[in-house]
Amino acid sequence: MAEETAKTREKQKASQSRFSEILAILRRNHVFQGITPEKLRIVIEELGPTYIKLGQIMSMHSDILPAAYCNELMKLNSDVEPMPFDDVIDVIESSYGEKWHEIYDSIEEKPLGSASIAQVHRARLKDGTDVIIKVQRKGIYDTMSRDIRMLHRAVKLLPSVGGIKNVVNFSDVLDEMWKVAQEEMNFLKEADNMEEFARNNADVKFVAVPKLYREYTTKVVLVMDYVGGCPVNDTETLKARGYDLHEIGEKLVDNFIKQVMDDGFFHADPHPGNVKVSDGKIVWIDMGMMGRLTTSERKLLGDGVRGIANHDTTAVENAVLKLGDFQKTPDRDALYHDLNVILQDYADTDITDVDIAQFFQEVIEAMKRNGIRLPHGLAMLARGLIHMEGDLAEISPDINMAEIASRRVISDRIENFNWKKEIRTESQKVLRSMEKSVEIPSLVERALRDYMAGEGHMSMELKTSPRLAWLLRKLVQNLVLGLWVMALLIASAILCTSDLQPQILGMPLLGLIGFGLAGTIVAFLVIRHIITRPRNLEDRHRRR
To answer: Cα separations (Å) of 418 from 120, 263, 363, 504?
Structure first.
């Protein structure tokens, strides 16, 4: 009991010390005076490996953070100080429950790379096979769990980031980030991703995935084939080896679009470190961060791409509205206006000139302004598109992702077009329409019967433009004045048939006054109609 109490005190003391360290870093960077994108990135890098991983996950949330912050967080340097080799061996042996040399002939002490969650070492199995061992940082799960708890406390002290603190529940965002981080820290999940990705691309001759050694893979150790080659953006080496950069770029984009549109399972972090070229193939590695899209989401994306290619504003708008996650009832007028502004900028642009990553980001910003969040899979797609555009800028800048995407979507639609299915679907729609049309007379009869019985109700919400509102006000005013004129004329005419005194020119004075007032009102209406114009209605409407 005393031992457990002592351990609890040690954990509390460590947490308090870490919290004080975090506050010191925040004060040193003057965070409480405001957070710029660059300042946020610097602070996260100073906070250490776990925060770097959280920052990388946060960079996917372009539906929450402003684009400038997401773009800056994508620059986070994931190369961190490697853990000691003794810790690497300790993690491997603790995971296997036996000495490492029972499985490996050798493990190189110097890591090939060291990131926030794990580091990679080259090794050799007992049978002489060269492999890569991905080893999770010792104690990273407990450390990140502790940091998440402290972040829940710290976010209450932070100023608004990009003006969204009052809009976004950062505690919910932290919970979502922790969920994503937990998945990425489970290497068995990454192993599943590798096998699924390999199956999806088994028929693509120019794509490869490192062979997985499932028998040596655990939650904290991942073993796969060693892959040589060079990063996809190492243009000098690729040229020296005789590769056609344009061909590599087109195949890279085509395969990424295939992952998104055909498989619904795509690499969400395709930066150059995770994409290599080896033996004439594009090799995808590091499957810890993958995105998924449902069949419905992929169909809507396809509709949107075809809409862009055909300059069909309605198709793009409908896709956006159906894809979004509405957190509140949106202002449809404002949303349509924002989308139309974006689409009009591309109205005269050929599909070959559309920057699809930029277009996607502009649409996300419009959705964000209108309180709409993207599903998690689409948020990851936004990150993947940005990385792909960056890769293409270095490999072959003249390649356009939108053109390849529209070409693949349209060709897939033609190749996979099922006449029987389409005829059956359309026939069902026609049949349903006919069935509903037969019911129209009975529905009309029921509505009229309810109305005659005083039981009919109708709710309407009308939104008027400034010009229509002005016309309606004038119409009501003129109608009221017209009724006054009619009343005065009728009353005056009746008075003029009587012998009411006093009289002028043989007519009752009150009758003459009534005619005079009616004439004055008519003259006023005529003059106002001539001199009044509905100018600056928008300004008047805004001032009100």
So the answer is: 48, 19, 32, 92
CB atoms within 10 A of CB 184: 22
- Over its length of 544 residues, how does the chain's per-residue pLDDT go in tens digits? 666 666 667 767 767 777 788 778 878 887 777 778 888 888 888 887 778 877 877 776 666 677 778 778 877 766 678 899 999 999 999 999 999 999 999 999 999 988 888 999 999 999 999 999 999 999 888 888 888 887 777 666 655 554 444 445 566 667 777 887 888 889 999 999 999 999 999 999 999 999 999 999 999 999 999 998 899 999 999 999 999 999 999 999 999 999 998 999 999 888 888 999 999 999 999 998 899 999 888 888 888 777 777 777 777 778 877 887 766 666 667 777 787 787 777 666 666 667 777 777 788 777 777 777 777 788 788 878 888 888 888 888 888 777 777 666 655 544 454 445 545 555 555 556 555 555 666 666 666 666 666 665 655 555 555 666 666 777 777 777 778 778 878 877 777 777 778 877 777 787 778 788 888 888 877 777 676 654 444 444 444 4
- The verdict on 22 and 168 lying in the same domain is yes
Task: Give the chain's radius of gyration (CA, Å).
Answer: 35
Domain of 486 in residue numbering reads as: 468-543
Residues 271 and 341 in one domain: yes
pTM assigned to the model: 0.68
Asked if residue 60 lies in contact with residue 385, where contact means CB atoms within 8 angstroms, the answer is: no
Q: Is residue 445 in some structural domain?
A: no
Indicate whether 152 belongs to any domain. Answer: yes
SS3 123: strand
Active site residue 90: no
Catalytic annotation, pick one of 63, 147, 269, 391: 269
Q: Say how far apart CA 162 and CA 66 lie, in whole Å.
A: 6
